[in-house]
Amino acid sequence: MTAAKKLRIGLIANRSHQDATNSALVQLLHGAGPALRHLQAELVIVGRTLDAIISHGLLEACPSVERFPYGREGGLMKLVSRVVDTDTARAVDAVIYLIDPVDPSSVFPEAQALKRQCVIHRKPFLATLASAREWLELEATAAGASMDTRLNGSFQLEQEGIALIAHDAMKESMLAMAEKHFPLLDRFAYRYATGTTGGLLNRLAQQVKGEEAGKNWTRPFLSGPLGGDAQLAELVLDRQIRRILFLEDPHVARQHEADIQLLERAARTVTDFSQVISEVSGADRWLSLLTQRAAI
Question: Among the options 100, 148, 229, 259, which is catalytic?
Answer without folding.
Answer: 229
